[in-house]
Model the fold of this input.
Amino acid sequence: MDDITKREPRKISAEDINPRYNWGRHLPVLGTMGVDFEERVDYRRLQRYRLARAHAALEKSDLGALLLFDDNNIRYVTSTKIGEWARDKLSRWTLLIRGQDPILWDFGSAAVHHKLYSPWLRPEDCKAGLVGLRGTVDPAFGLMKHHAEEMASILKAAGVAKMPVGVDIIEPPMMFELQKAGLTIKDAQQVMLSAREVKSADEIALLNRAAAMVDGAYQLINDTLRPGVRENDIVAEVNKFLYTHGSDDVEAVNAISGERCNPHPHNFTDRMIRPGDQAFFDILQSFMGYRTCYYRTFNVGRATPAQHDAYKKAREWLDNAIARIKPGASTAHICDVFPTAGEFGFPDELSAFGLQFAHGLGLALHERPIISRVVSMDHPTEIKEGMVFAIETYCPATDGYSAARIEEEVVVTDKGCTLISLFPAEELPIAARY
Done:
């Protein structure tokens, strides 16, 4: 093991942690090509920004280090990514110590690959590791004990072993082994979410590109949606479109139509679309890790007065909330214009959670801020310039089965906010109009 005490403390500049924006220009929609004649996403600047934000959040905490198993946090801190399958396996982790560069333990040969292709990481900091694949390798076999003692030794050499170690998500047997090795464990997820809540110009460019891909997917849906097409047909075509255009993960495509619209099931089936159906879709995918959550509602062929009315109400609730978004506003002030659960037919706010709602977007689908009557009225938080989040509303129709669902993605600017979800939704779109 290398002598970690010989490392120079990492210097963090104001430029590293403070994003620079030019809100006077339209947000760029960048292609996937690298060019020499325009400045596009600077991925090394992005890497420096994210690591500096994580270090700054760590310094503000009482923690000596962050031990991160959450794949989104690992990508944020190390700028590494392996297959999407790793997202729920807890098969890789990183240790971020105050003033030091991250140490990464990865799945088998991925560690060797990083040594060759990730020069921002020190080769000796790219280690192979295995703690059990969520219990598939029995903890009694000793892998967790081995790595817990290894990390405790590194923390001791760095002089922070007596400080608490923050952990985001972890298998219980691994936590027990860390405690046996003499470490005090505390929560790291709040530290990391505070680091991730304000986006840099590069992150905003990637989020905007991801939203632009969904704009195109909705044009495809508009052109495809007609009687005889099934919900799963739409899902298949959208998956093909997004992966063809550079998506690195289509997390989900919700497709809900007809009588399935009310109550909202958050899924898709093989239901066949019929004339007069109201149908809504949510497209959750990522470009270079940066995610979308973006609903649109359509009617097929025609719409009834009840369906039009539901759409108008959902749009009004959404627009009223968007009008309140600006730096310094509170989440309570924004969600105060959302209807209460009882006003749209739900017994309590928990039952209606996620229907009149906003959530941060970044490397995860749900980041800060969270805006909901479940939490925001009693625990208001401040909206900040550079936040990016999705804000969504839902309104059941008076016919008892139709419903409208609309969602916009917004970037908080210096004075208000700007939309990056641009497929038209001011009025109810009618696909396959007769």
Summary: Residues 356 and 433 are 29 Å apart (CA to CA). The radius of gyration is 23 Å. The chain has eleven helices and 16 strands. Residues 4-196 form a domain with the Creatine Amidinohydrolase; Chain A, domain 1 fold (CATH 3.40.350.10).
